[in-house]
Structures are given as C-alpha cells and as structure tokens.
Write a structure and sequence with these properties.
It is built from eleven helices and three strands, in the order E-H-H-H-E-H-H-H-E-H-H-H-H-H. It is mainly alpha-helical. One of its GO terms (molecular function) is G protein-coupled receptor activity.
C-alpha cells in the first residue's frame, strides 16, 4: 500500500443536504431541533433523577443508566448542533480538524456506549442468575472500575480509527456524501490505495461490535433461561421488563452499526438514514424506553417533582 504524506485538503464539503428542497430543509430542521432538545432534556432528567435519589444512586443498574444518558447527551451533540447550523445557513462545510474531531468523538462515544451496554447486560446477568453474590460482585469500587474500563475502551477504539484515517493523504475531491464526518465517507476521498486501510478499519469496528453483540446475546440468553417458569410472579415480570428494555436499546444501537459495517464503503442513500438514526434518533429513544418501561424510575421522578415543588413553596 503506497502512501503519500501530502494532505492539501483543509475543508470538507458535506453534501447531505444538497438535494433537499426548502420545505424539506425546514422539516428536517424542525425534526432535528425537536429530537436534539428532547434528547438533552430527557437524558438530563434521568441523570438528575438518579443523582438525587439515594436508592437509585446506590443501585449499579441505575448508576450505569445515568452514565448511558450522559453518553447519549454527548453523542447527540457531536453532529446535531453542526447539522442545525448548516440547515440554517444552507452552507455545509467543515474544516479538516473539525472533521477529525467529529470522527474521534463519534467513535469514542459510540464505542463507550457499546461497552457500557455490554456491562449493563453483565450486571443484569449477575443480579438475576447469581443474586446471592450480587452485592459482593457489583460493589461500588468494582462498578467504577468497570465504568472506567468502558471509557478507556472507547478512547482506544476511537484513537485507532482516527490514526488510521489521519494517516491517509487528502488532495481532493473533498465532498462527503453525508451530514457529518464519518470514517467510510472520509476514507473514500483519500488520494491513494485504501484497500488495506479499509480492512483494518472494518476489522477494528466490526470486531468490537461482534464481540459486544455476542456477549449481549449470551448474557440475555442465560437470563431468559434462568427466568423460565418465573414470568408469572412479580419478580420475574420485573426482571423481564428490565431486560426487554435493555434489549430494545441494544437493538437501536447495534442494528444501524451492523448495517454500516456490512457495507461500510458503499455510496447508498440508506447510509444517510442509518447515520441520522444513530446520531439523532437513538439518543431520544433511550430515555423514553427506560422511563416508560421502568416503574422505579417513574416513581423516583415523581418523588423528585414533589421535592422540587415543596422547595419552591418553603
């Protein structure tokens, strides 16, 4: 693979909006604005609720849930503000440094979220399959260590992706067929043979996605087998409801990733839809799924609302 050290491109053109009419611009702006606002407020509400409720804060599951909400808030902020700005100005350009920053944070937060979802599945596995040793296994210091490992894994994954992309020379053209910078579209613009680089990039992302997905399937498979015959009692229904919410979130995260990994360097219009869904829609759906299907979170929110109401009148 022959590489050049010359990179003359200083600006990328984001062509994701080029084919839209004015009405479609306005509709997309309204959709993205609404989703981004709901994402920030919904995830912030979960973080504040867990932080202010002692019972939830001491539970590893809700401790991880609060961190998942933090990731979703940050993940939605990687692309949405720039997208809204581009829709208002109808000018879609991004600097080379800004593009590399988007790639880094997108994969850092996305990788951390995958690891965290896997950790949450492990937490549910220990709680349901080994309840007697749960408190000893998932103590506070252990949870902190596992969480730091998730973030470190995200940094390692993202740094690897960024190094592979930054090593490529870019000398034109500079038109990205998407709403924001991501690895597949940027790699296609490199003015050199990128076959080996594409294999390395796919291997890095694909291996993480595959391993996490298999661990998730294994964990929830064992949980379902353990819960077999207990779906009629209250504890079994509660555990099944929690696990089903986790599985819905896992599906929302992994299905778009698997779609992109299966055809990462294609030029299909569906890539844009997957990108929009992953960066804009998923951070909105996560808090909705967890709040609507989790009675403990809803009750904690009611207690928080009562406390805030009383504090306003005292």
């Amino acid at each position: 693979m022959k590489m050049s050290s010359c990179t003359t491109v200083t600006m990328f053109l984001l062509s994701g909006f080029s084919e839209l009419q004015i009405l479609h611009f306005l509709l997309l702006f309204g959709l993205v604005s609404a989703c981004y606002t709901v994402s920030l407020l919904g995830n912030l509400l979960i973080v504040v609720t867990v932080r202010m409720d002692p019972d939830l804060l001491q539970s590893p599951m809700y401790f991880f849930l609060a961190n998942l909400s933090l990731i979703d808030m940050a993940l939605g902020s990687v692309a949405a503000p720039k997208m809204l700005s581009d829709l208002l100005s109808q000018g879609s350009t991004i600097s080379y440094g800004g593009c590399m920053a988007q790639i880094f944070f997108l994969h850092f937060l996305g990788g951390s979220e995958m690891f965290l979802l896997t950790l949450m599945a492990y937490d549910r596995y220990v709680a349901i399959c080994h309840p007697l040793s749960y408190a000893e296994t998932m103590h506070h210091h252990c949870c902190l260590g596992l969480l730091v490992t998730c973030w470190a894994g995200g940094v390692l994954h993202s740094s690897t992706q960024l190094v592979l992309v930054a090593w490529l020379p870019f000398c034109g053209p500079s038109k990205l067929n998407n709403f924001y910078c991501d690895v597949p579209q940027v790699v296609k613009l490199a003015c050199s043979d990128t076959y080996v680089m594409e294999i390395l990039i796919i291997s890095n992302s694909g291996l993480i996605s595959l391993v996490c997905f298999l661990v998730l399937l294994g964990s929830y498979g064992v949980i379902l087998v353990t819960l077999r015959g207990r779906f009629g009692d209250g504890g079994g229904r509660k555990a099944l409801s929690t696990c089903s919410a986790h599985l819905m979130v896992v599906s929302l995260i992994f299905v778009p990733c698997i779609f992109v990994c299966l055809q990462p360097f294609s030029n299909l219009q569906m890539d844009k839809m997957a990108s929009i869904f992953y960066t804009i829609i998923t951070p909105v759906l996560n808090p909705i799924i967890y709040t609507l299907r989790n009675q403990e979170v809803k009750e904690a929110m009611k207690r928080l609302r009562t406390r805030l109401w009383l504090s306003c009148w005292t």
